[in-house]
Design a protein that fits this description.
By secondary structure, the chain is mostly helical. Helices cover 84% and strands 0% of the residues.
Length: 218
């Protein structure tokens, strides 16, 4: 009887650490979905399509917020975690920030009013998809440190993708200042470029957290 009572107590204070990996995977999936909506939105300069993609991104961002809250709240209730609590918080926040940036882009575009997404912005949207898919791949393998070498390689690849995004943004900005003289259009485009590139930067931030988690566990 005493043994059964002790077992129940252990079960209460030792929830499955695998739940964190499920939630991280859900959050990473949200980031891919958001990036794909962003890429579609920036590829077609159509007000109706813009609004539809914007609403889809908003819904995805709300889902991601709920998942992030669940992760952060669980840290106050969980006795055992799969890795350091600060790393769990940092990874959840980094993944959520990626999606926040994706939502910021149509929000800011709508605020400035009519205007098109440039070819470079469309390319940055596609790069965001690639970066989030890499994050999703790394997160999916994070539970098993037998995947450590592959995860670290993915983190390196994400850094290379971020460098590509930097180059595309600079090329777009150079063309912008050479071809556009309207102050409002310049401000609008400059801010959107920074947000597109920022979304990819947040992917690199998430990769940095993942990189640190792996190095601590191997």
């Amino acid at each position: 009887m005493a043994n059964r009572a002790f077992s129940r107590l252990i079960a209460m204070v030792t929830p499955s650490s695998g739940n964190y990996f499920v939630l991280f995977n859900e959050l990473a999936t949200c980031s891919v979905r958001g990036a794909k909506e962003l890429a579609r939105m920036s590829a077609v300069n159509d007000p109706v399509a813009f609004e539809q993609h914007f609403q889809n991104i908003r819904r995805i961002e709300s889902e991601a917020d709920e998942i992030t809250k669940t992760i952060l709240l669980s840290l106050h209730k969980t006795f055992i975690t799969p890795f350091d609590r600060s790393e769990i918080k940092d990874l959840a926040m980094a993944l959520d920030d990626m999606i926040d940036y994706m939502e910021d882009i149509p929000q800011r575009a709508e605020l400035y009013g009519p205007g098109e997404f440039t070819p470079e912005m469309s390319t940055l949207g596609q790069i965001a998809v690639r970066a989030t898919e890499k994050i999703q791949e790394a997160v999916a393998m994070l539970e098993d440190m037998k995947n450590a070498e592959r995860i670290l390689k993915i983190c390196q690849e994400i850094g290379e993708i971020e460098g590509e995004a930097d180059r595309i943004m600079r090329a777009g900005m150079t063309r912008l200042f050479a071809e556009v003289s309207d102050a409002r259009a310049l401000i609008r485009a400059k801010e959107l470029y920074e947000l597109f590139e920022g979304a990819v930067d947040r992917c690199e931030d998430a990769a940095d957290v993942i990189h640190g988690v792996v190095l601590e566990r191997i």
